[in-house]
Design a protein that fits this description.
Blueprint (H helix, E strand, L loop, with lengths): L1 E2 L2 H8 L8 H10 L4 E2 L10 H13 L6 E3 L6 H14 L2 E3 L2 H9 L1
Parallel strand pairs: 3-4
Antiparallel strand pairs: 1-2
């Protein structure tokens, strides 16, 4: 789903779920007036198949990607696939310290 306004995000996805970072990040991106491509996954950091579906879509898409953030993901394979797409699209991969720790020690 592609969003460009905060109101759209709220109408389509509803309120962010407690304990999930994706909603907060999405709001921040839209407040800075960037477009947001949002892939909903069943469970952050766990539903690996959902991430790979999103990656497949991104690889086929001609849409520009400025940055990619996968909150709650410390899985090396998923972050590696995301990094490859970021290199291909000339964008950056953003991860927080908790996910980096999981990646580095996993």
């Amino acid at each position: 789903m592609l969003f460009s306004e905060l109101e759209e995000l709220s109408l389509v996805l509803g309120e962010p779920l407690e304990g999930r970072a994706g909603g907060h990040d999405a709001i921040q991106i839209l407040l800075y007036q960037y477009k947001l491509l949002f892939f909903r996954v069943q469970q952050e950091g766990v539903s690996l198949e959902d991430y790979y579906k999103g990656f497949t879509w991104l690889q086929k898409s001609s849409s520009p990607v400025t940055a990619m953030k996968l909150p709650g993901v410390g899985n090396r394979a998923v972050l590696g696939a995301a990094h490859a797409i970021c290199q291909e699209k000339g964008s950056i991969l953003v991860i927080d310290e908790t996910d980096f720790y999981d990646f580095a020690t996993g």
